[in-house]
Specification:
By secondary structure, the protein is an alpha/beta fold. The protein is about 35% helix and about 25% strand. It folds into two domains: about 190 residues, FAD/NAD(P)-binding domain; about 150 residues, FAD/NAD(P)-binding domain. The chain binds flavin-adenine dinucleotide. This is NADH:ubiquinone reductase (non-electrogenic).
């Protein structure tokens, strides 16, 4: 059954899909506009994805990087936050359908901003996800924390040396920023935080492998910084395997094809997937109803004003949009969202939609941490690595975290982790470690029952 949307209003209706960098910034930039905004997102929080790896490795808590969206927007009277997963966009009737616990709600719009981001891509091998979770959501990060710490716990109880070795082998697939950060932090967790905490195993002997089908670490940051990151990781004891194509993933390990065609097997209990992205399926829904095209990653090829062909009132921003020269990074989403909000505001004041200035992206650079006290950074033509890059990384991430309380809590967590060896968030619950499997089993049972009836 479809329920009508909430309270109708005479004001210009802006629907924003997503509460990530794109969605939140679009809504906030429209704060003083005479519009009625409905922000629909499938999570109750605004997620700061760049620090997910610190949740997965026990440095900070999920609350520090995921404040509730409705609390952030509490003082913005023209915006209503609605929880629900958008399942359909109808460009002809200008409505959006979203589902919350089996109920479908229909929300009309005058202007639509789609900022539903991207998920993990397994390059057509979605079955890998069961054994190699990605790192896109709080659920992913908490589950990975459960798997990583759970592997050490099981190793402590195991008397079989082969099984112990498998449990103490951690493989991170994908040597981009997330993969580098994860591998570095698992190595530091094993070497530093957990050192001496077990009696039967030596956590410092854990094997951390970072592998990628590409020939370099951090390819977008260039050869010099990639090499610096690689050297630093190797100093931490991380094994780097490049030109290694993953061909299979199962409960007990992964299978890898080398450039000479040989096939290798790595026995490992914990696998992390950080190798590719696939834009929200809402992109295809939009493309199917318009002349918009999508690229191989499912991103919508938008016009220079970030709208889609034939629909100047529908904008796609952030990771869901393909714009030449704009990377799939927070700044791409933030700047795109602010540009669209400005377009809406000026057209409400009478500007001609046919005369829109094209969106232009200002590259503020990119950074990745490798370990404590070490990061790599590229700002324009300037490249630097090491301690100062790390300080710059800390500072910038604090600036972009939403909320004063969150900034303070994160800073305190960093002080205890980076100056001492403690991590305040090493708790794992049965629910975190097993929830995904349980939910998948339940879904499989429901599907079996449907098929049988
Ligand atoms: C682990 C990780 C580390 C990263 N590190 C960095 C970094 O260091 N620096 C950097 O600049 N960038 C980094 N990025 C990239 C950056 O986070 C993204 O580019 C940015 O989040 C894109 O913003 P967005 O608004 O397009 O999408 P997102 O921030 O992903 O937001 C998408 C929103 O849409 C919602 N949504 C999705 N589907 C639906 C649906 N069907 N219905 C309703 N709501 C929906 C989601 O719940 C979410 O609220 C990282 C990304 C990841 C995953």
């Amino acid at each position: 059954m479809t329920h009508p949307g909430a309270t109708p209003s005479d004001k210009h209706k802006v629907v924003v899909i997503g509460s990530g960098f794109g969605g939140l910034n679009a809504a906030q930039k429209l704060k003083r506009a005479d519009v009625d905004i409905k922000l629909i997102a499938k999570t109750t929080h605004h997620l700061f994805q760049p620090l997910l790896y610190q949740v997965a490795t026990g440095i900070i808590s999920e609350g520090e990087i995921a404040p509730p969206t409705r609390v952030i927007l509490r003082k913005q009277d023209n915006c209503q936050v609605l929880l629900g997963e958008v399942t359909n966009i109808d460009l002809a009737s200008k409505t959006v359908d979203s589902i919350l616990l089996g109920h479908t709600y229909r929300t009309p719009y005058d202007t639509l901003i789609v900022a539903a981001g991207a998920g993990q891509s397994y390059f057509g091998n979605d079955q890998f996800a069961e054994w190699a979770p990605g790192m896109k959501t709080i659920d992913d990060a908490l589950e990975l924390r459960g798997r990583i710490l759970g592997a050490f716990e099981q190793a402590e109880r195991s008397s079989d040396p082969v099984r112990r070795e498998k449990l103490l082998t951690f493989v991170v697939v994908g040597a981009g920023p997330t993969g580098v950060e994860m591998a570095g932090q698992i190595a530091e967790l094993a070497d530093h935080t957990l050192r001496g905490a077990f009696r039967h195993i030596d956590s410092t002997r854990a094997r951390v492998i970072l592998l990628d089908a590409a020939p370099a670490v951090l390819p977008p940051m260039g050869e010099k910084l990639g090499k610096k990151a690689q050297d630093r990781l190797e100093k931490l004891g991380v094994e780097i395997q490049l030109n290694a194509m993953v061909t299979d993933v199962d409960r007990n390990g992964i299978t890898v094809k080398r450039p000479d065609g040989t096939i290798d097997r790595i026995e490992c209990a914990t696998k992390v997937w950080s190798a590719g992205v696939s834009a929200s399926p809402l992109g295809k829904i939009i493309a199917d109803q318009s002349d918009a095209e999508i690229d191989r990653a499912g991103r919508v090829k938008v016009l220079p004003d970030l709208s889609i062909p034939g629909h100047p009132d529908v904008f796609v921003v952030g990771d869901m949009a393909f714009v030449d020269g704009v990377p799939g990074m927070a700044q791409g989403a933030i700047q795109g969202a602010k540009y669209v909000a400005n377009v809406i505001k000026s057209e409400l004041k009478g500007a001609d939609p046919a005369a829109r200035e094209p969106f232009s992206y200002f590259d503020k650079g990119s950074m990745a941490t490798v370990s404590r006290f070490s990061a790599v950074a590229k700002i324009g033509k300037i490249e630097f690595a090491g301690f100062f890059a790390w300080l710059a990384w800390l500072f910038l991430h604090l600036v972009y975290l939403v909320g004063f309380r969150t900034k303070i809590a994160t800073m305190l967590s960093w002080i205890t982790t980076f100056l001492g060896r403690g991590r305040g968030q090493l708790t794992i619950t049965e629910q975190q470690a097993y929830a995904r499997t349980t939910i998948e089993q339940l879904q499989a049972t429901v599907e079996d029952e449907k098929a049988a009836s």
